[in-house]
Amino acid sequence: MDDSTIDEAYLSDLPLWSDTETRTVLEQVCEKYNVPIDVLTELVILQRERQHQERAHGIRARFEEILGRIE
User: How many separate domains does the chain show?
Assistant: First the structure.
């Protein structure tokens, strides 16, 4: 996922993305545990897109696809 495909509406209200200092800490933690920030970002977006659904059909496969990008 590149930055052009990120829907900022799903992230702009979250301090992890809107606050510079908090974002820096997030990036440091991701680096420490070898988790690409874009993977975490995409997981949060997916969860927020689907949070209104009682049953999020196909979400598990999408999680596996996203997490599969972690080396």
Answer: 1
